[in-house]
Amino acid sequence: MIEKILISNRGEIALRVIRTCKALGIKTVAVYSDEDYNSLHVKQANEAYHIGKAAPKESYLNQEKIMEVILASGADAVHPGYGFLSENSDFAKLCEDNKINFIGPSSASMDLCGDKMRCKAAMLKAKVPTVPGSPDLVKDVEEALSIANKIGYPVLLKSVYGGGGRGIRLVNNDKELREAYETVTGESIAAFGKSAILVEKFLEKIRHIEYQLARDKHGNTIHIFERECSIQRRNQKLIEQTPSPAVDQKTRDRIGELVISAANAVGYTNLGTAEFLRADNGEFYFIEINARLQVEHPITELVSGLDLVKLQIDIANGEPIPFKQKDLKMNGYAIECRINAEDTFLDFAPSTGPVPDVTIPSGPGVRCDTYLYPGCTVSPFYDSLMAKLVTWGQNFEESRLRMLNALNDFYIQGVETSIPLYKTILKTEEYKKGELSTDFLKRYGIIEKLTEDVKSEKSEKKEPALAAAIMHSEYFKSRVISSANSNHSWKSKLG
Amino acid sequence: MEYKIEDVEGTFNAQILKNLGNNEYVIKIGTQEHQLKILHMDSRGIEFILDQKYHKAKYLESATAQMNLVVDGIPMKLNPNSKFDEIVYKNTGGGGSVDAQISLRSQIPGKVVSVNVTEGDSVKKGDVVCVLESMKMQVSIKSHKDGVIKKLKIKSGASVAKNDVLAEIE
Amino acid sequence: MHSEKIEKFLEKQNKALTAGGQDRILAQHEKGKLTARERINLLLDEGSFTEIDALVTHHYYEYDMQKKKFFTDGVITGYGTINGRQVFVFAYDFTVLGGTLSQMGAKKITKLMDHATRTGCPIIGIIDSGGARIQEGILSLDGFADIFYHNELASGVVPQITASIGPSAGGAVYSPAMTDFVIMVEKAGTMYVTGPEVVKTVLGEEVSFEDLGGAITHGTKSGVAHFVAKNEYDCFDKIKTLLSYLPANNTEDSPLVVSDDDPNRMDHNLINKIPENSLQPYDMKEIVLSIVDNHQFFEVHELFAQNVMVGFARMHGKTVGIVANQPLYLAGALDIDSSNKASRFIRFCDSFNIPIISLVDTPGYMPGTNQEHNGIIRHGSKLLYAYCEATVPKITLVIGKAYGGAYIAMGSKYLRTDINYAWPTAQIAVLGSESAVKIMNKKDLDAAKNPKELKKQLTDEFNEKFANPYVAASNGSVDAVIDPAQTRPMLIKALEMLANKRDKQLPRKHGNINL
Question: CB-based contact (8 Å) between C250 and chain A?
């Protein structure tokens, strides 16, 4: 039985894992870099160890150092969170070699899933449909160009070791492909230490629909419904929701079967996510299995009533999944907005710095997973995700309205945030009708709408703003009466 | 006093008409009168009821030409001296100096991954001047105008801070 | 009752308000300049300005001057508050006879300055003037002299700030030069002793107003301007910010500005700002920003003599003056301009009870005939004198190199510095290891079979033995070697310990600093 877990991550996901561990009576070990001395996850864990400098490769990606700490602290398991080392099979293997329980899939199945080409091959064998693209890794930019021209532009350049939106670029022609080839290679090496590129057909008006899957060490496989994550920017998800407006119960079951086949095909263990693209004609294409707990897992938790981190730990302990597929029922509707420290108007450029004040929304059906607290700092070294704002309602409309209210209540001072963007998206007719696609922002001119919304919001507040402004002058005028205090000791000094 | 509000059309005249005592006032905005009761006030912020509606405003750092407020969570910038703007900005242009037009500044802190132009190159507005890496994302910094690269202030591998001058383009 | 008298009074008051007349006001606006009263109202708290001597006029008869009589006579004087603190302000009024200074104008200004010194409040002057009123001849020049005398009377008694938002030429520029801080507005303020026309006539040199004496010139080359403002708004903002750091007069302490910044805040990243290779430059400002309250550092003389940084900041709410070498420029070496810049700043802080914190990383003085022939010896000695003379709390932190004369000059222990700290990366030595070895081991190196190898060996030995803070620590020249992460808490503790420090000089009229 796992007794002490080291979390090789930071920010909100580290806090998330700590929360479940506390509930289960499992001790926690946190690790932190120079940037994170004052982080909440350091304060909330039972023990905390400093592992290196701010740059990820010197700290959160430093496998040797982390293993040192695991052994020194006596932890018997490690939870990698998402990003960083969560899909690094070398690290998973290192844990296996040191007899440390890695809470996630085995290094072998991680290798298989991480290698998009091998994974694709396994899917084809299991009769799970995949997206047209390069049969294998492209050797160089020339091969990429030839394949792109064969399957037809637009295409996606994807790094095999990508994820979380990194190492993916959409290109429309040869020139863009050449430029993007360099960028994609660079991003991939920077974030994951490796790079290898493949080319995939880009489909129009697609919806990104993924399934949460779980498989224990005894071969029991289940899926815990779908999540729709179509609203994205630069291939990174912005809003996730479940159930998907494009999935009825029949489709849910049909694709669910495919998901279970896929998980079995790669001999997967623990929790993972099978990602699909749904074309406009209703066809589903398998993309990949993300061999980790995803950022958006809270929405699945809210509609299923499960604690997915607990499920991960149970599976890692060797326990069988305590329920069958038919026992799982979806309840209500959940939406998640990723609150990023970004300036929407500057092409989502990261915004960093101290956060002197924060007000975190709450109330029935409102959940916020975040590392923010008044006085914390958003670091330029790490991801721009500051908080996950999640709402649950009996139906879509209730959940949507709760989210709008929660967004209005959420105040973060000191950095630019994507909060105004989400308010605008959630108010559009298209969103209400569930007309989602991965090009949602561009297709419905969201940025222009946002500009208008920001202006009208300010216009609505003009009277209270003016009232506050003139009272400010009054306040200072009243202090003028006591100006004599500004030089009061002068009189008493003689000589 | 006359105020201009950023992103809102028009100039607004606001003044205190009557001080009714007990922290109650009658104020006038434009031609409209409003009832105002202050619940709490100090140099950092104010909570008040304006015409039966509750509002909370924070006072952030202010300058002669710009009051920074956060009103009910919405950041707002007010200019109480807008009538002088035309005169004050006459020789130096829009609150910035000639420097602002020549200098291409970085919007974010980061590391220079690549420099895509050399001194003397002609660029068009939108051309990629360099690529910065920040928060594991690569962000292309594009030229803010048509012109010629007069000076490059960065090289590959350098670290830049927010607002650092990356290049001078004339 | 008395309605006629009231009417007469109102008529005069209104006339005084428009001073030079509506068309002159329009002309001023056309040039992109605000009028004197508009400036004063933007600078001071709303509605706090009380004018005095509004109805003063000149009493001159030559040159038909009686026909050109205006109320206020070219300068607006009065008092008010800035953020609730009382100040005295005068502003030259360009709309009246080009803002030229007359005998009466000078009387107005000196009366105001007397008020300020008697009540112990800061003086702010806004310059926008054609200079002396030629018609009044010697009377005008005497007027300037009287103003200069009052500048001297007030110097070190109350803070004096000058804003240059227009021309100021000839003798008129000396008043600003005698004040504590000069702010010039880009493309508006100009200061020079002799104008471009005379320069062309006498020397045949062609130069524009801006190049000769504009804000950028004085902010970067001559150091006459301590601050360069983008425009008039920025100018007033800077004045307000500057005043917020200063006490009202020399008997007070600076105002306490409570902040949420924990006085015990540690920064474990601080040590990483110093590159491993001591020859590589780094930005000293990052270190300053980390240790002060709320990352706020109000830099003075930002563009002048950039190899040293000076400015105001707060530590645990109290104003401190920071003097720091800047390795980004000239590797942080000291030279003539930086010695002057730092000395003046230190003496200002000493006048007004502001503690001084010095951050040291300097390889020495700039060599060369330029420096020597221009008197680095004289100018360098000012820095030593200023440090010794200052009796405010003084704390020095050696961060990197501190060699030879520059080590002494940057607030070393025996210049009457109260607390000296050093980081483990400090290298306090007589010379850099390379040079030291060349001199002390010359014989051995000349005789060696492999001089390069021997040199490296000797240099490494020297570094081991001397290029560190421990020799200094073992002698008490440094009070402690501190953990860089603890810099802020250590400095604040030292400041609190020294808060009630009292120290005196021997009585004398004044010393003889090598000017």
Answer: no
User: Which residues from A are below 8 Å from C272, CB to CB?
Assistant: 34, 53-54
Q: Does residue B98 have a pLDDT over 50?
A: no
Q: Per residue in C142-184, pLDDT tens?
A: 999 999 999 999 999 999 999 999 998 877 889 999 999 999 9
Q: What is the residue type of A207?
A: R
Is C272 in CB contact (< 8 Å) with chain A?
yes
Q: Please state which CATH number belongs to domain C270-431+467-497.
A: 3.90.226.10
pLDDT grade for B101, boundaries at 50, 70 and 90: low
> Can you give the pLDDT at residue A329?
93
Write the CA distances from C483 to B28, C268, C285, integer angstroms.
58, 9, 19
Residue, of C134 and C424, whose pLDDT is higher: C424
Residue C278, beta-bridge partner list: none
Q: For A473, which residue in chain C has the nearest alpha carbon?
A: C46
- Kindly indicate whether the domain formed by C3-245 is annotated with CATH number 3.90.226.10: yes
- Return the percentage of chain C with pLDDT > 70, whole number: 100
CATH topology of domain B98-169: OB fold (Dihydrolipoamide Acetyltransferase, E2P) (2.40.50)
Share of chain C above pLDDT 90, in %: 63
- Cα C479-C483-C487 angle, rounded to 5 deg: 80
Residue A490 and residue C251: Cβ atoms within 8 Å? yes
Both tokens of C1, joined, read: 């009752």
Residue C502, classified by CB atoms within 10 Å of its CB into exposed (0-12), middle (13-18) or buried (19+), is: exposed
Interface with chain C: mutation pick from A477, A480, A482, A489, highest number of C CBs within 10 Å = A480
Interface predicted TM-score of the whole assembly (ipTM), two decimals = 0.72
Nearest to B92 among C34, C42, C186 (CB): C186
Out of A34, A37, A375, name the one closest to residue C260 (CB).
A375
CATH topology of domain A207-440: D-amino Acid Aminotransferase; Chain A, domain 1 (3.30.470)
Q: Which of C39, C187, C210, C233 to mutate to test the interface with B (most CBs of B within 10 A)?
A: C233
Name the least confident of A48-52, B140-144, C57-61, C423-427: B140-144
Closest by Cβ to B71, choosing from A187, A234, A464: A464
Of the candidates C278, C324, C270, C317, the one whose C-alpha atom is nearest the C-alpha of residue C301 is: C324
Exactly one of C406, C426, C473, C494 is catalytic; name it.
C406
Chain segment B31-65, per-residue pLDDT in tens = 999 999 999 998 789 999 999 999 999 998 888 88
CB crowding A26-44: b at 16 or more within 10 Å, else e = bbbbbbbbbbbebbbbbeb
Mutate to test the interface with A, among B44, B48, B137, B163 (most CBs of A within 10 A): B137
DSSP one-letter string for A403-468 = HHHHHHH-EE-SS--SHHHHHHHHHSHHHHTT---TTHHHHTTHHHHHHHHHHHHHHHTHHHHHHH
- For residue A418, the model assigns a pLDDT of 95
Tell me which chain B residues have a C-beta less than 8 angstroms from the C-beta of A457: 74
Q: Locate the domains of chain B by residue range.
A: 2-85, 98-169
Chains with 3+ CB–CB pairs under 8 A to A are B, C
- The domain limits of chain A are 4-103, 132-201, 207-440
Type of residue at B55: H
Identify the architecture of domain A132-201 in CATH: 2-Layer Sandwich (3.30)
Q: Provide the shortest C-alpha distance from residue C233 to chain B (in Å).
A: 6
- Is the pLDDT at B96 greater than 50? The verdict is no
Q: What's the confidence (pLDDT) of residue A162?
A: 61
What are the φ and ψ backbone dihedral angles of A154, each rounded to 5 degrees? Answer: -80, 150
CB pairs under 8 A between A and C: 56
Query: Can you give the pLDDT at residue A244?
Result: 96
Q: Of 3.40.50.20, 3.90.1300.10, 1.10.340.30, 3.40.50.1240, which CATH number belongs to A4-103?
A: 3.40.50.20
